[in-house]
Write a structure and sequence with these properties.
single chain; 19 helices; disordered C terminus
Amino acid sequence: MAKRLTYWILGALVAGLVVGWLINANIDDGTPAAAERLTVIAGYFSIVTQVFLRLIKMIIAPLVFSTLVVGIAHMGDTGALGRVGLRSLAWFVCASLLSLTLGLILVNVLQPGVGLALPIPPATAASGVDKGAFDLAKFLTHIVPSSMVDAMATNEILQIVIFSVFVGVAITAVGEKAAPLVRGIEALVAVMLQITNYVMRFAPFAVFAAVASTLAERGPGVLGDLAYFMGSFYLGLALLWLSLIAIAFVLIGSRTRLLVRYIRDPLILAFSTASSEAAYPRTLEALDRFGVPPRIASFVLPLGYSFNLDGSMMYMTFASLFIAQAYGIDLSLGEQITMLLVLMVTSKGIAGVPRASLVVIAGTLSMFKIPEAGLLLILAVDHFLDMGRSATNVVGNAIAATVIAKWEGGLDPRDPADRDPPVAPTGHGPAKDIDSFEQIGGQTQGQTQAKA
């Protein structure tokens, strides 16, 4: 099923490109009436994509909560939780700096915005992107949920993570009395993964609609206008992939060669839908098949979606400096490094959904006297750039979880990469026995963790 789904998604991607191009070629005659018709047609296509993304959002909150609580309870003690958390954050900071620094170097070497022969919007024009939400004080207070119900209703992943950590630690402290609750949450994990399998069957339709909608409305010409900027950015992503995989190879060994094969399905899904959040459930399953213990993957992945968006951070560096170059604004090396550090802080906690990076960029440009309206230059191709950065976010988080698992005692034996994993009666991976919760806390931590 997993292999067939990958082929269906790839086929839908190609079909969407062809259909979108044909619609644009047959309708677009350069008149406002034709542009309006294309917008209406693209809107109809986008309904399918929006329904799929809403289905994904429907399962994200309970899936993150249940897998994270079970994962923390499996760790058996708060010391292990703190160790995994610190190692995860250390990796996230290092990966963020690598992504931002690599983007900073490439955008200065390639200079995609210098001599740009495009009409620059007036400095007084607005981009239409709300940047008011990004305030450091508001962000820090926003981390802690005022209501778990509200956090789940709005899919605030970072708030869900905070609440789940409290629940998991409390379960560990209570011990055997909490065993019935743990078994109930394990059952919830199994149910949510089964729902995930249902939802993923709609993925090819969503991919087809997303690509057809964008190409029908924008046309293939928009790709040529900013081809050098897009090519430079994708070159940066390719180098980032190679850097992360090389580091993982040093830390993990030859098994790293198989990781991309295991995450192929969520990788293509994230690229096609331009949403790394859409790939979260499949990434969790793929890592489990690869051998990342569920207690590690279920803890590291949700944190990664808030603190380790490597592709988004490279994009923010590229876009910000590209706009400065397009306006002819010369930023000193010190100002560029300061911008890099600001982006690293303000990017934490953004959701892995389309266009979230634009909000961060809009809030950062004004700090360096760069006209915010410069975002209008890249809005036309943002969807195509979002596809690459979403896929990169999946790669970065998968490598992070794998490295942390290696540091925490090693990887489990692998399951076949192309097999669709059955939902286990307990736990949240393929048919795999996981730690017993009959004794939790400082007592006996688990009894089995073997492959079926």
